[in-house]
Specification:
CATH architecture of the domain at 19-129 and 176-190: 3-Layer(aba) Sandwich
Bound molecules: coenzyme A
Order of helices and strands: HEHHEEEHEHEEE
Helix content: 25-40%
Distance between the termini: 29 Å
Structural class: alpha+beta
Number of strands: 8
Length: 191
Amino acid sequence: MMTADWIPACAASETVAAYRPVEYRVKLATDGWELREALALRRAVFCAEQRLFNFTDADDIDEAGALTLVAVSCIHSMAEDVVGTVRVHALGNGVWQGSRLAVRRDYRGQAWLGSELIHLAVSLAHARGATRFLAQVQQQNVALFERLHWRAIEAIELRGRPHMRMEADLAHYPPCTTFELGFLTTLRSAA
Ligand SMILES: CC(C)(COP(=O)(O)OP(=O)(O)OC[C@H]1O[C@@H](n2cnc3c(N)ncnc32)[C@H](O)[C@@H]1OP(=O)(O)O)[C@@H](O)C(=O)NCCC(=O)NCCS
């Protein structure tokens, strides 16, 4: 039972870690709410946080039907919030591209969400016949992609910021056909 003196002792502590669900499902967005929350997260990251765009980062690639992947926090296996997203689309001739990778700020470095979104994005494209998978990676994220078996192709500038054109080594990304179900990842501290 909670006692009256438990509350102030707990509230006064600044070392109590913020609550995070243990389980996250990384999957293809299949429901309207997942797509809406993914777009809202992209706006929060690429417009408000990074100021790469003014009002919206949505573009022709979305219009043309790019696939959206999401990382969804789960409570007792029930979907709760979209806390990460990435999109993928085919450029043609077996070449696919990933873009708009974003993890909610308070969920970064918590559950390998960025890494797992990259993993599913490339594996999905591989299953759909990709022979190459590319991305234009913000310079500060190059090390992350290199650790995930991507190689740098060329340095470029996009929207006034340094980026690296990079390519995934498909040998490390076996085709995944169960992308609607996706897979689970857990909080690092729970692993
Ligand atoms: C980039 C981003 C998606 C990574 O998401 P994340 O969930 O924090 O990534 P992960 O937890 O999978 O990271 C895996 C590892 O890479 C590290 N890492 C994360 N971001 C990194 C970065 N920018 N540079 C180097 N390492 C990084 C993590 O610390 C972790 O390392 P560790 O296992 O040694 O602790 C997230 O930081 C983000 O949304 N950033 C803002 C938007 C953005 O930059 N999008 C990418 C455009 S290319």
